[in-house]
């Protein structure tokens, strides 16, 4: 008997969660630009979910949306050095991430990747699991004290993921810093993260009006990150003791070829990248997973049963359904809904002649719902990812990217989210009080358009 059969998943009518209406064919360039500013997901029409390649224009350059796995492999692996971040992407991310791993290019990226890799091996992540569990148990205790009162799970998962990020990074609780950090993230997301017309039009070396505001933000932000690092350094580290958190691992990191360590400025950018990229994407994935399970109470009960049978485990192989729920959630709501690259030189992709500065778009949102690549692509069907199921094409499922620039924290995020989801659902029945649809919007990450009220009751 397969796992899908043991959970009776195969015989259930699948849940199809709400999504925004697709853009009308023939939308003007200005209309598409306006849609992108508010919700990039709503800027794609039906053809984008059916065709292998969609050709368009991005100002005075050609643009291509790629949906065929072989073409995606070519851009992200075979010839990845020819494709760099777009100017608009750098404008939006650099003020908050600096020159950290996510934005670095060339030799700087290779140095950072090699130096950081040992901090994110399964063995290294295993040493951080107690931080993940302690933060999760604390929020479970908080929910229990609420005694069935309405809960904003979006805000709660942000706090949980931020607390885990703080403890795994610095070994201290984020109580005194968490609200300020959340305020920075909310301020940037609401005011500065969406590209404006001039952000898209101007060369990177020409500052846009938004860049001035971003520069002021960066000064305040980097000062805050330096204060976090100073607080962690003041806590010290016992001589000869093993690393206790990511900060210890990053301070000790050396490029295996050159022996070079991170400078203080580089360390600050890595801290910002790991905390921000890690906590926001994990919080978003946990929110959507809980929303799916609230809409699908049978699968939610199966996850709770699995957790109880496994006990208080930190072994993911004992939680295959919980992991499958997360994998399917990441398919339907990939945190990074769009990968945008600019060609550094000529190439041929999908039979098209690519010129320098042409824009290549690989959209996990589209890829994960493409009608040629998935059966019933808009349905929530965790059985797709249970052991024994036919795995998807490696280049059709990209929740963490793929190739040399695949997310370095993918294993960390999956361990964190799986353990947190399992413990929360085993402790509480999660129900929606507000039944109005929650729509995904694509602005930096795949966010909910609002925070519905949930009720959590003890199992």
Automatic annotation (TrEMBL):
It holds the Pfam family p450. InterPro entries: Cyt_P450, Cyt_P450_CS, Cyt_P450_E_grp-IV, Cyt_P450_sf, Cytochrome_P450_Monoox. Keywords: Heme, Iron, Metal-binding, Monooxygenase, Oxidoreductase. The keyword Oxidoreductase applies. Belongs to the cytochrome P450 family. This is Cytochrome P450. It comes from Rhodopseudomonas telluris. The lineage of its organism: Bacteria, Pseudomonadati, Pseudomonadota, Alphaproteobacteria, Hyphomicrobiales.
